[in-house]
């Protein structure tokens, strides 16, 4: 009501904020609407270090998978089918089953995977391999292991083969790889597994002899010091 008590026209300026609030609401609506419609930013490509780390993780996973597959094959081949293999007296050579041992020479690498296969490669190109044969077995006294029927040899020569001489030693290492005649290869595996009872008795006797010799030297030194 106006001052005269009659109904009057309400001035728009009496509520100056109403239209502005509407304008703000419209602007705010459109502003947020634009944000909602905007496409998310693309992820940045991995750095060289991150890429290398991913490749390393992938390679590690592949290596682990291959190791598990090889282990499964070994279980099937050696343990479930052990009756088909000669592991020596008391199965002593079962410890070599599924293992690949290398003779790392300067010119050639000889690798013997017992009860499986043998290969030859070059240090600077390890993936370029030549087959030296598949597992053939031991000799009668288990001092040699044979791999036969490897890759063809030039001419009419027999296919490549490898003989591994088994030597009693307190540490395991493969050494002395050579090709004494064309496509006929030979190397030596020193290992405690190759030690027989006679070897152990001999080693014990040698140890006792060394201990006696050491005791004699100590006695002589003590006598010389006492005579001063």
Automatic annotation (TrEMBL):
Residues 51-78, 193-227 form a coiled coil. Residues 98-197 form the MRH domain. One of its GO terms (biological process) is N-glycan processing. Residues 1-12 have a biased composition (Basic and acidic residues). Pfam families: PRKCSH_1. InterPro entries: Gtb1-like (IPR039794), Man6P_isomerase_rcpt-bd_dom_sf (IPR009011), MRH_dom (IPR044865), PRKCSH (IPR036607). Keywords: Coiled coil, Disulfide bond, Signal. GO terms for cellular component: glucosidase II complex. The keyword Coiled coil applies. Residues 1-48 are annotated as: Disordered. This is MRH domain-containing protein. It comes from Dunaliella tertiolecta (Green alga). The lineage of its organism: Eukaryota, Viridiplantae, Chlorophyta, core chlorophytes, Chlorophyceae.
